[in-house]
């Protein structure tokens, strides 16, 4: 029987927020908050952090969080692939990618993306999305959009898609924001790491396009609950630190 593993990729280098995983929220490094949230996902058989930085590894190991040291990788998915190899995970096992800078991810979303992959055996990976309801987000290049048909992702882009030629000023009912939460079959991760970065992946700077460029299918569904914003900027970090601790712990 296949097992499910939550792996949290964490890198020290960040253009907008250096040392991001180690920055503190209410006196605790962010990566530890994320690992604690992952541990609440009772469906998972294991949880670990995958990093290429000894400082992150030391903080995690001192807190009792299992850690895998990887090489520097071009994407989080490449890091997961190496971690899965180091951990000798079975081809049929499932890896859930929980971003290290999203410490408020509800465990129910981790379960949802895992179950979505299980329910779609023809897909190499699964992910989630949510409706876009404002024009600003629809046109922001930092907000990744996805076009889907049923539970299949057709394309991901930083551009405002799908394009409504008759109403270009506001997002349409088919506009969805992609959430950076993934579940993969280990065999798909192995294949992914062996492929070269494709043209579309490099143009958009979106690693999930490597799967589509190589003919793999991606299952997608609307998130069952809201995914709180992660930490990308100093302002994001300040916002989370300003949140009362009792409110923070209630997530």
Short descriptors:
two-stranded antiparallel sheet; alpha/beta; Spore Coat Polysaccharide Biosynthesis Protein SpsA, Chain A; 251 residues; single chain; 11 strands; 10 helices
Summed up:
Helices cover 33% and strands 23% of the residues.
Can you give a write-up of this model?
- By secondary structure, this protein is α/β, with parallel strands linked by helices.
- The protein has two domains: 1-101, Alpha-Beta Complex (Spore Coat Polysaccharide Biosynthesis Protein SpsA, Chain A), CATH 3.90.550.10; 106-227, Spore Coat Polysaccharide Biosynthesis Protein SpsA, Chain A, CATH 3.90.550.10.
- The chain has ten helices and eleven strands.
- The chain has helices spanning 30-39, 54-62, 76-86, 107-119, 135-139, 186-194, 199-204, 209-213, 234-242, 245-249, and strands at residues 4-10, 24-25, 28-29, 46-51, 67-69, 94-97, 125-131, 145-149, 152-157, 176-185, 218-222.
- Strands 1, 4, 5, 6, 7, 8, 9, 10 and 11 form a nine-stranded mixed sheet that branches. Strands 2-3 form a two-stranded antiparallel ribbon.
- Helix 3 (76-86) packs across helix 6.
- The radius of gyration is 18 Å and the shape is globular.
- The two termini are 32 Å apart.
